[in-house]
Amino acid sequence: MARYSVFSLLGNALSGNRKWERVWRSPEPKPAYDVIIIGGGGHGLATAYYLARNHGITNVAVLEKGWLGGGNIGRNTTIVRSNYMLPANAYFYEHSMKLWEGLSQDLNYNVMFSQRGVLNLAHTPSQLDAYARRGNSMRLHGIDAELLDRDQVAKYAPGIDMSQTTRFPVAGGLLQPRAGTARHDAVAWGFAYGADRQGVDLIENCEVTGFIREGGAIVGVETSRGAIRAGKVGVAVAGNSSVVLQKAGLTNVPIESHVLQAFVSESLKPLIDGVVTFGAGHLYISQSDKGSLVFGGDIDGYNSYAQRGNLPIVKHVAAAAVTLFPNLARLRLLRSWGGIMDMSMDGSPIICKGPIDGLYINAGWCYGGFKATPASGWCFASTVANDAPHELNAAFTLERFCQGRVLDERGAGPRPELH
To answer: What count of other Cβ atoms lies within 10 Å of the Cβ of residue 396?
Structure first.
């Protein structure tokens, strides 16, 4: 595969763009690999890329039941941030942020990472105090954070209703300037391109139907395209984690699957420079390069594997958007979609060696999956390669749920739908 550069761009432009090479191969599956990664989304592709790049393990297959990037990696609102308070989450997501900052150069593929900032609005003095506490914790962990007053919020996002007569007056906010957005499709394609260039086999339309076990250990998988053996099998399938792991005999994984909807509006002139979140409800909103507003809110409050949601959430999110930006009242929606969220019991992820030899688990991402993509792949690859967790994911074990060492960022308790 050729590297992308200004010279390849000019050369292909002069040829009428008829000589571009395929971004990745479409190989037939081999009978055996050193490592199999189930799931051709962002986390699976990133894991395969870092297995090859960081650990020299290139005899790897990524198995995807549909097309690469067809799951949650292409069904999110593209937000990247590391504004966490608990040490384990803060260090992990800040490592991800640092990887994001050099990812386009590392992959030789433009993931369109834009560090436009993420602003969390506070609507009461107590909420602003809580944000000050979070911001102080972030800065102690080496993460950028700025506490803004009302005037600074108005300057950062002029479209916000800053009147004192609005239903939820703005008291201030917490800004992470280095946060922002990235193009979700480009992230999937970039990691696929990077993994393929290093010899990883990316196998689409290959659904895992079962696991091959010998002597109590997992030594391969049964698929819709035949049996494939491997000494190590990693599972990174987001909202389908419970379904796939059940095929390996794990029936009590502490994860629930819920639908999370996202929405895109018609295009507008520039209105929102960064990402703004509503503190009196659940809304996060930004504006794409094409002018469309991209926004979302709460998960639908029921378990589901459907990639679509229902109208109550649409109404809730639209009401929050108009409360915050009254000039959006007549805006028309172009489309909406849903992703299947793997909600853990404490709102923090699971990246660990599984309870069965040969099995490795990457799941439980809740709202944090997209922003974690590079660090998730980095740490999961390290865990698979070394049979031990990286220091950044050492706390993200399955055992923490039965040992009382939960990582509950929100303090919501064992309620997956609240994280």
So the answer is: 27
